[in-house]
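Protocol step 4 of 5: obtain the predicted structure for the target chain.
Materials: sequence only (see below). No template structures provided, no constraints applied. The aim of this step is simply to have a reference model before the mutagenesis design in step 5. Sequence pasted as it appears in the construct record:
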Amino acid sequence: MVSKLFIIHGAMLLGAVAAAASAAREVRRRPIKRWRLLAPGLLATFSTTILLAYPDILDLLRTQVWLLGLLAALVGAARGHWMGLDSDHGWRLVRLSRGYDGFVVSLAVALFATIQFILEQKGDDDGPYEPTLEFVMIVASGYLLGRSVVAWFRAGSIHHVDLHEP
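Step 4 output (structure tokens):
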């Protein structure tokens, strides 16, 4: 029988790995669908929210967490605003000049989610490493969320470049 703890932390790990996989598409410098810009940030934030909410959902009400996430999101928003981006409005495609930062940060989220998952399965859920894991995941997912949202909005407002190849 699969435990509730395994399912919840499995969802956290799956979200983090999916964030890294979606960010990997940005690195290739090939056109991707515009909605895919949102995926790394939303998936990493989903993963971090699960980590913070279980077992005590009231942990989501800590103002320090929101402030830290907001500061990281502002840094990510600045990156999303100034990164090189081409956009094809007709086909809703985008191409990033350099998307390595999103991939590296999402890999960090996946790595720390994996460490947290392993510690939870060993029964060391309230160990000395949990605050550090939470800190890294909050900062990384905040950065990715800010970067993703601003890049998505920006892709809809910059000048059109033909990216679709027949």
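Step 4 remarks: Residues 130-157 form the longest helix (28 residues). The chain has a mean pLDDT of 88.
Proceed to step 5.
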